[in-house]
Amino acid sequence: MYGWIWRTLPGGLPGKLVGSVLLLTVVVALLFLVVFPAVEPLLPYSDVTVEPGPAQQSAP
Amino acid sequence: MNDAIRTGLRGLGQTLITIGVVVLLFCVYELQVTNLITARAQDRLGDSLSRGWAEAPRQGVPGSGVPGQPPPAQPVAAPALGNAFARLYAPSLQGFGSRVLVEGVGVEDLKDGPGHIPTTALPGEVGNAVLSGHRTTYGAPFNRWDELRPGDAVVLETRDTWFTYTISGSEIVAPTAVEVTLPVPRQPGATPTKALLTMTTCNPKYSARQRLIVSAELSATTPKSVGKPPALQGA
Hints:
The structure holds 2 protein chains of 2 kinds.
Chain A: H1 2-8, H2 12-39
Chain B: H1 2-55, E1 84-89, E2 98-103, H2 107-112, E3 115-116, E4 127-132, E5 153-157, E6 161-173, E7 195-203, E8 210-223
Parallel strand pairs in B: 2-3, 4-7
Antiparallel strand pairs in B: 1-2, 1-5, 3-4, 5-6, 6-8, 7-8
């Protein structure tokens, strides 16, 4: 996959480097701004309150 | 045939490496970025709190009470959900400083700072004021709450008053132990006579298996006009 991306990026070596950095930035931004905040509630360590039971797990 | 296997293995290797890098980035996000998010929220809330306290007319100004008598005990107005309404100090924990308390313990509230359960008593009020906060990530306000010992002080600063609570003990309970948040903990229906403070966070760190409960009782009420309470002097 990475080989295909590298071959597909235009603009010779400088263009490929710039393109790679741009792609990487977009992917990391997506992860940090969208994916990670969405995944986080699935992890246990935000649960800090006491709750009446498994029926009411909406609040942390 | 060999080429096909080689291509397949290369694809598998790249996929696994990619997954590993993404997981590492997620750790960076949880352990570093969430702290930055909370630090920014705390700055913002701290500013709005200071501004609100400076602008709003003080309760019990001279003339509002009976002449010649001290103003009546000053109740804290119930804050709106998500708003900052008090500061929390733990002078026995070196380097803790203070945190801005928000009203509410929803997921988004707790990203801003430790939260106060809206249905429970307010700072200084008779009953049980319940606070919840992150043990890890998002500024981890209650990270070191296991280090609080009986006799240590926790101070709540509201607009007009310092409320000093003295730790009475801590315990580990099941996540469903809602009885610790009752006005008189573990005694449903009992009429409270003491002003208690109960703080909950997760235990052990990075787990939701149990809750750490730290209990405290109001030991001093100091009007801000008098100055800082003894627990915060020298800090």
